[in-house]
Each structure stands twice: as structure tokens, then as C-alpha cells.
Amino acid sequence: MSKNRMKLSDALLKNILLEGLPIPSSTVFTGPAGSGKPIIALAIISTWLKNGGSVVAAPLQFPNQEFISGILKDFYGTEIQNYEQNFVYVQFDTTVDSVETVNQNQMKANLVKPENWDRMIAEAKKMTKKSDLGLMLFSTALNLPLFSPTYGDRLMDKIQQMFDAREMTYVFCVSTSMLKKKAVEVGEMADNQIEVWFSERANNLLLKVKKMKDGAYLKDEIKAPFTQAILEETEKISKKYKVTEVLQRIKRI
């Protein structure tokens, strides 16, 4: 690991991001719903933790961390319980006004409101161990809070502000199946963008780097080592933990 770049340990991303991940930077995974974006993105989170970095994880469609913990363990051999001082899980909760600490590794946050992203990050810095890599913010289903008629546009501005400041490293996943125009804009805001989609013709998950802040990267699309059967099983598990009713609440905020 160099001062401004982290080499990736997972073979898939290591073969695409040839010089590693620029740090600090913002990386956005874009693609249709159900295409496996978090599975690929969690390869970065796994490497970050193994290199001593801290992570605040806010997967907006999963109110508990079982799905994320399972992917990290089953796909990347990363046991979250081994990183208690480096990992905080955030439950997206529109019924709270601000940010609430649940325990030493968990909080609740109403991330529809842009100012609560700053509060969440500030609390996570207090709750995690300092490291040379610093804190990474990982979030998925970013489309959900953007549905808010009151806060959606302000949240877009907030994302741009965070990315431009480069005070930490961000890894976000956003679906192009909902609010596609805004999803595309979030991808354009980021330093790095990776497209992920499932190809029926190839019968496999494909990904391609659209842009990278600096450094060499593979410009061709590449197959992920995940078969359709594995993805279908993972999707079944995700549905067990995924919340669906939250979208209707957001549309009223």
C-alpha cells in the first residue's frame, strides 16, 4: 500500500484497478437493481478493513447487518466480529430526527436529511479506531433518500460537497433502475465509477470501469466469478433482510 493508493486483495478488482484504489477518493458503483453492486463493492470494504482502515457502513435497504456480514464472510473471508474497533453499522431510520447511538458498533440515522450525514460521520469517527487509511463511508441504495420531495435535491448537493472535499474515502452503490437521471449524476460526481450488470448472453455478472481519478485500469468489461445461481441465492437472502415499506415514507418527507 502506497501513501495515496491501496492495493486490492480481491483478484477481481485487483485485475481491473491495476494500481489500486486512490485514497482519499469517491467510488460509485452503478447498474440496474439486483445486478450485484454491493457484492463487488464489498471487496473494497474487505481490503480496507484488512489493511487497518475503519468503515462506517450505511446500506440503506438493510436495517440490520446480517446480509452485509454474510457477504463479507462468504465471498471475501472477512469476519466482522474481528474488526469491532474498526466497524460501525448504521441503520437507516426515517422515524428518528437525527442520529442515535445504539451501541458501540451501531447507530440509527435519518439519512434523508443532508445534515445527518455529517453527524453520522462525526459519531463514527468517535466510535472507531484511528488509522493511516482513515475512515471509509460505504452506502448502498442511495436512490431511496433521493425520492424525498423536500430533501432530495439538497441531498444531491450534499453528495457533491462530500465528494469534492475528499476528506475521506467513499464507496457508494446507486441503482439506475430508479431515478435514473439522478443515479447517472451521482456517478458523474465521483472520482471513480464502475458499472455492474448481469448479461443473460454471457450468463454472468459483468463490470467495467467507466472512469478512474488517476492510475492505470483495465478498460475492457470483465466477468465476475459469480454464477447466476450464486447471484440468485444471494438475492433470495437479501430479500429476507431488505426493507420495502421505507420508500413510501420517504416520498412523504
Set out the fold topology.
Elements: E1 5-6, H1 11-14, E2 21-22, E3 26-31, H2 37-50, E4 54-59, H3 66-76, E5 87-92, E6 99-103, E7 106-109, H4 115-127, E8 135-140, H5 143-146, H6 152-165, E9 169-175, H7 180-189, E10 192-199, E11 204-211, E12 222-227, H8 228-241, H9 246-250
Parallel strand pairs: 3-9, 3-10, 4-5, 4-8, 5-7, 8-9
Antiparallel strand pairs: 1-2, 6-7, 10-11, 11-12
Written overview of the protein:
The protein is an alpha/beta fold and 253 residues long. It has a single domain (5-250), classed as Rossmann fold, CATH 3.40.50. The protein has 9 helices and 12 strands. It has helices spanning 11-14, 37-50, 66-76, 115-127, 143-146, 152-165, 180-189, 228-241, 246-250; strands at 5-6, 21-22, 26-31, 54-59, 87-92, 99-103, 106-109, 135-140, 169-175, 192-199, 204-211, 222-227. A 10-stranded mixed sheet has the order 6-7-5-4-8-9-3-10-11-12, sandwiched between helices. A two-stranded antiparallel ribbon has the order 1-2. Helix 3 links the parallel strand 4 and strand 5 (87-92).
